[in-house]
Structures are given as structure tokens and as C-alpha cells.
Design goal:
The chain has 8 helices and 6 strands, in the order H-H-H-H-H-H-H-H-E-E-E-E-E-E. The protein is α+β, with helices and mostly antiparallel strands and 332 residues long. The protein folds into 3 domains: 34 residues; 154 residues, Orthogonal Bundle (Helix Hairpins); 114 residues, endopeptidase domain like (from Nostoc punctiforme) (endopeptidase fold (from Nostoc punctiforme)), CATH 3.90.1720.
């Protein structure tokens, strides 16, 4: 037993000498390396997390756009309901007035004469008048019923719309809270690697912006995008002090009278497909096939302007380095 123990100790000493000679460190430096990740590893983690987070943010933009549209429709329905109620009230008053007059006074001619004389010769007139009165009342009641049905349907639609808006609003609140938690985690990760600078390394403007001058709608939209370089990224923001990716392209094209929705997938559907070789300043470049969760605006020379992600700013970038390209589209 002693001989075996001595042999194991000798082998262990030899192994430790070999490790030391090879420069292998087994103690504190490895722990320190784990505690302070390199900026490149942090960027890789941020990119991976952001590619999961940005589709959620763009879905938030979609829901929020739908909420705004629903609120506008709600306002329109409310405006329509008031005159409809007035028509219902007037029709009901007319029917009540007709019935009251017939009961209190009767007809000023044939009916009164028949009631006062009691003559059977006026029986035909009596029946004819009563029939006409009944038909007239039925017509008035039918009109009222139709109006009331319209009112009831409009009111029902309004209630459904109101409930839908309330549900969307609650969903937005939950989504926003979840997104804020993830964004806070990303910011902490960046600060861990970069310090107070937050990783804002490199120039925001790489050269002339737009690269080539054009005075058409696309050129003007590109110049507006260039003017927004340096604005901070804030998800869900529509400017003018901050933007996310789809609100940047939306604002650029709104400056020339072209309306785009604050949602990348909708912007894809609202624009016309073009080939890469036909790209002009102002065209939109969409990224990440399948999800379409990022968009930039082309400014010429293989460059785009885009709002990358939280902790960053609107900036120029090489088009092919932003991410996998899903396609090229032209607004207007």
C-alpha cells in the first residue's frame, strides 16, 4: 500500500510539472475571465437576444397600430349613434302622437261623422278609415322597429369593439412590461462589458448621407433618415426624439406624404418588390427572412440608415452587415 501511494504521488508531481511547463493555469485567472466577458462575446449575446426580442417589439407595434385604428372607429361609431337615437325618439313620438290623436279626436271628417250620426250607411267609410289608420300606424311602427334594430346593432358593435380595445390594451401593458425587463437585462449586459459608454463604439455616420443625391421622393426620404442619425433607439417610439426601426422608415417616408404602418410586416405589404440591382436612395431593405423583424432605409453606395437596437442610436451601416436580407421594397 505504501509503495502504491508513493507511486501515485510521483505521477501526480510529474503531471503538475508538465501542466506548469505548458503554461496551464488552474486557479484565479480563469475565474476572472468568466466574471468579465469580452465586448465581442457580449455583442454576440446581445445580437442573439435581440433577434428574439425584436419580433416581439414589432408585434407590439402591430397591436398598437390596431389599437389606434380601433379607437378611431370607436370615435366614429359614437358620433353616428347620437343622430340615430334622435331619429328613433322622433319616430316613437310620431307614433304616440298619432295614436293619441285618433283616440282623443278621431278623424276630422268621415270618422267623426260616422260616430256622431251612428248611421249604418257610413259603415264602409268607418271600416276604410280604420284600415287606413292601422296601415299607417303599422308603417310608422315598422320604421321605428327598423331604426331601433339599427341602433341596437350599432350599439352591440360598439360594445364588442370597446371590449376588444380593452383586451388589446391589457395585452399591450403585459407585452410592454415583459419587453422592458428584457431591455433592462440587455443594458446591464452592455454596461458590464463597456462601462458607462454602453457600447456606443464607432462613428454613427460613415460618410456622406445620402451617398448619392437625388431630388425625388426616395431621395428626400433618405435625407430625412440621415437627419435623424444620432437619435436614440427606443422601442415603440414614433419620434421626434427617438425611434425604433420601423418608425424610422415610417417617419422618413411620411415627410414626402407616403403613409407606412409602424410595423415591419405591414410595411413589407405596403411596398412594391424590387431587385437588388434596382436599389435607389429611399428604398427599404428588410432583414431576417420569415419574421421580417428589422427594416432599414437605403441611402446609396451599399449603405443604409437604421435604428439597430436598445442602447444604440440611429446610424449608418453597410447594408450587408446588418443581418440576413429578406428583400428589397419601394414605397410610394
Amino acid at each position: 500500500m505504501k509503495r502504491n501511494g508513493a507511486r501515485r504521488a510521483t505521477v501526480l508531481r510529474s503531471l503538475l510539472c508538465l501542466l506548469a511547463t505548458a503554461g496551464v493555469v488552474l486557479t484565479a485567472p480563469a475565474t476572472a475571465a468568466m466574471a468579465t466577458p469580452s465586448p465581442s462575446s457580449v455583442e454576440a449575446q446581445i445580437d442573439a437576444q435581440w433577434n428574439e426580442l425584436e419580433p416581439v417589439i414589432e408585434k407590439f407595434n402591430d397591436v398598437h397600430s390596431q389599437l389606434i385604428k380601433n379607437q378611431a372607429q370607436l370615435k366614429k361609431l359614437t358620433a353616428q349613434l347620437t343622430p340615430l337615437q334622435v331619429q328613433v325618439d322622433v319616430a316613437l313620438s310620431s307614433v304616440r302622437g298619432l295614436a293619441a290623436d285618433a283616440y282623443m279626436q278621431g278623424s276630422p271628417n268621415a270618422f267623426n261623422a260616422m260616430l256622431m250620426s251612428g248611421s249604418t250607411t257610413h259603415l264602409t267609410d268607418k271600416l276604410t278609415y280604420l284600415d287606413q289608420l292601422a296601415v299607417h300606424q303599422n308603417e310608422q311602427i315598422a320604421d321605428v322597429a327598423k331604426l331601433r334594430d339599427q341602433y341596437a346593432k350599432a350599439k352591440s358593435d360598439l360594445q364588442v369593439l370597446t371590449d376588444s380595445i380593452a383586451a388589446r390594451d391589457a395585452d399591450l401593458a403585459q407585452r410592454k412590461q415583459a419587453i422592458n425587463v428584457k431591455i433592462t437585462a440587455l443594458q446591464k449586459l452592455r454596461l458590464q462589458a463597456y462601462g458607462a459608454s454602453g457600447g456606443d463604439a464607432g462613428p454613427l455616420r460613415l460618410g456622406p448621407c445620402p451617398v448619392t443625391y437625388q431630388n425625388d421622393a426616395g431621395g428626400k426620404a433618405a435625407r430625412v433618415a440621415c437627419s435623424l442619425i444620432g437619435k436614440p433607439y427606443v422601442f415603440g417610439s414614433e419620434g421626434p426624439s427617438s425611434y425604433d426601426c420601423s418608425s424610422l422608415t415610417m417617419a422618413a417616408w411620411a415627410s414626402v406624404g407616403v403613409k407606412l404602418t409602424h410595423y415591419t410586416v405591414d410595411q413589407w405589404g405596403e411596398t412594391k418588390p424590387i431587385d437588388r440591382g434596382d436599389l435607389q436612395p429611399g428604398d427599404l431593405v428588410f432583414y431576417f427572412p420569415g419574421s421580417l423583424h428589422h427594416v432599414a432605409i437605403y441611402i446609396g453606395g451599399g449603405q443604409v440608415v437604421h435604428a439597430p437596437h436598445t442602447g444604440d442610436h440611429v446610424r449608418m451601416a453597410e447594408m450587408d452587415k446588418v443581418g440576413p436580407i429578406a428583400g428589397y421594397r419601394r414605397p410610394g
